[in-house]
Amino acid sequence: VDASQDCNVATFVVGPQPFSGRSWNVRVTQYSCNDESSPGGPPGCLQYFTEPTGVISSFNFPSNEKNANTFGTPTHLSNQMYTSCFRRNTNKCSICFTPTYTGGAIESFGVSESTIKNGPGSGSGSDCTGDYIVINGARQPDESHLSAIENSNRLCGSILHTLRKKKVSTTICTEDTPFRISFKTDDDENTLGKTQSTNEVKGTPSGTVGFSLSY
Predict the structure, then answer these.
(1) Domains of the chain (ranges plus CATH)?
(2) How many whole angstroms separate alpha carbon 119 and alpha carbon 85?
(3) Strands (E), 58-175
(4) Which band of pLDDT confidence, cut at 50, 70 and 90, is reported for residue 24?
(5) Which segments show compositional bias classed as Polar residues (predicted)?
(6) What is the 8-class DSSP label of residue 148?
(7) C-alpha 155, offset from chain centre
(8) In 3D, which of 43, 25, 20, 18 has the Cα closest to residue 33?
(9) DSSP tally for the chain: helices H, then strands E
(10) What is the CA radius of gyration of the chain?
(11) 74-104: pLDDT as tens digits
């Protein structure tokens, strides 16, 4: 969280009913702004990943493959709007993301309803208005850097792809720096429809599982 020069106030809302006997221990660590070598990373980054490879997940997602296949159906959080950043390592000019889990009990990308009526499908651009991730300069590995200019930065649906209505996830790469992913969700889910394109909880993967991406 970018700190104010004045007093910073933290407010915790845990539910509509008053509770007694609850307490929190809050640890605050301050980092210098504009210092990408510090654990805090660049300004505006809620998370900062410094290792050259790893996994980034939405906060709801199970932390390992065993749990991912037995957890049931994870549901991503509402009203999210944050950015996760990645340190650019020496001699590395791009970063790529691919779904961590595919073909199991759940897939590891599903952030909105499908773009295909009766099956999982990818969304991009104008499809992505409620819940989506943003990868600036998104492209597939076999596309040129110039192709990323024509692709949308917004990606959604229940399949990860730069193009819409795709049925199989792909790897997404970018040369845009600083390396980052943003995640935005609204305050509700579409659950009244009878097909995967109108109901986010229908099908596998559903449009509510969130994401887990290896980079």
Answers:
(1) 1-215 (2.60.120.290)
(2) 32
(3) 81-86, 95-99, 109-110, 122-124, 132-134, 154-157, 172-174
(4) confident
(5) 192-215
(6) H
(7) 10
(8) 43
(9) 2, 11
(10) 18
(11) 788 889 999 999 999 888 899 999 999 876 6
